Amino acid sequence: MDPSLRELYQEVILDHSRHPRHFGPLDHATHKAEGYNPLCGDRVTVMLALDQDGRVADLKFEGRGCAISQASASMMTEMLAGRTLPEAQKLMDGFLHLVKGEDTKDLAADDREHLDVMAGISEFPMRVKCATLAWHTFKNALDEGKIEGASSSEAIGYKKGGAA
Ligand code: ZN
């Protein structure tokens, strides 16, 4: 990789870890899960709100960990918001392939470009679990983290395609 590009990517990761997007509690969450990476000590809680169309209307995270785990969680919340569950699954699969250095043909071109800052992780197998922690936790929240009594009808109105 071009050294200047690598430097830029490190800046992006540090910026996300220092100023994480979508950090904090999510009041109207419908699903929630906690994740822990014992190899590094990273902890993350992912909260999301599914709307009635089965779309990720909103998601946020909390937790502490290394720069990579925090940056990955921050990027994830930015990228998954507004997606349907099949779209979210596809993005997650593509991300997991990317950080393991595998084929990413299943990722849309703009998603691949957005996630390129994380591609270098594949050179550091010890850090892959840092990068994937939030994504696995998101999946766990969907699969087994439904919050009792939470109603998707109260999810905030995400406007399809950003239409005003
Ligand atoms: Zn870590």
Q: What is the terminal separation in angstroms? A: 41 Å
Class derived from helix and strand content? alpha+beta
CATH topology: Sufe protein. Chain: A
Q: What share of the residues does DSSP label as strand, in percent?
A: 15-25%
CATH architecture: Alpha-Beta Complex
General shape? globular
The tally of beta strands, per DSSP, is 3
CATH C-level class is Alpha Beta
Mean pLDDT: 90
Bound molecules: zinc ion
Indicate how many domains the architecture comprises.
Answer: 1
How are strands sequenced across the largest beta sheet? 1-2-3
Number of helix segments?
Answer: 5
Order of helices and strands: HEEEHHHH
Largest sheet: 3 strands, antiparallel
Helix proportion: 40-55%
* Uncertain parts: 159-164
